[in-house]
Specification:
- There is one protein chain.
- With about 200 residues, the protein is an alpha/beta fold.
- About 55% of the residues lie in helices and about 15% in strands.
- Helix 1 crosses helix 9 (about 180-195) and helix 6 crosses helix 7.
- It is globular.
- The chain starts with a strand and ends with a helix.
- The relative contact order is 0.22.
- One of its GO terms (molecular function) is dephospho-CoA kinase activity.
- It holds the Pfam family CoaE.
- It comes from Lentilactobacillus kefiri.
Length: about 200
């Protein structure tokens, strides 16, 4: 039976850095963002359900989901964001459990989920690891990465639980305001304890 570790943080806090490093170390990672993309892919029941709720304008000419259009809708209206989560969550959960079943014989599996707390996945995991970045660094990273204005970047950050709240619930906090090397050293230390 695998130990399931929930890896979370906030948008643009460096969770992908940690997740990618764990994968390089041979730790299986179930990436909730990739799962979401899979269940919202062209021709899937998940995408059909989203079109039914939000209209055909969220579809690109090739039939794929127009993520930026859907983002504009849901990040400007909290009730639309709740509706999105309500619609797509059953598809996501089903795929996560399917992937988890394949890793039952390994000692440790990581569920990488930015909205682990917000979407009610925290109770599924055996341990919680939060990647923390100071608010100023987080905002700058998000603006640069997603080419967002300060207003839109703040909206996205505010749609998630405050990082400090997540840290208060964490078993382990990885601090990622410094260099990547400093961050990964903390991951190595955590991993050494896990594998004892």
């Amino acid at each position: 039976m695998t130990k399931l570790v929930g890896l979370t943080g906030g948008i643009a806090t460096g969770k992908s850095l940690v997740s990618g490093y764990l994968q390089k170390k041979g730790i299986p990672v179930i990436d909730a963002d990739l799962v979401t993309h899979k269940v919202e892919a062209k021709g899937t029941p998940g995408l059909e359900a989203l079109v039914k709720a939000f209209g055909p304008q969220i579809i690109l000419s090739d039939g794929a989901l127009n993520r930026s259009e859907l983002g504009k809708i849901v990040f400007n209206n909290p009730s639309d964001l709740k509706q999105l989560v309500r619609i797509i969550d059953p598809f996501i959960r089903s795929e996560i459990f399917k992937q988890l079943a394949a890793y039952q014989s390994v000692p440790l599996t990581v569920l990488d989920a930015p909205t682990l707390f917000e979407n009610g996945y925290a109770h599924l995991v055996d341990e919680l690891v939060v990647v923390y970045t100071d608010p100023v660094t987080q905002l700058h990273r998000l603006m640069k990465r997603n080419k967002l204005s300060i207003v839109n970047a703040n909206k996205r950050i505010q749609n998630q639980w405050p990082l400090q709240t997540k840290c208060n619930l964490a078993d382990t906090i990885i601090y990622n305001s410094g260099t990547a090397e400093q961050t990964l050293l903390q991951v190595d230390n955590w991993l050494a304890n896990e594998m004892k």
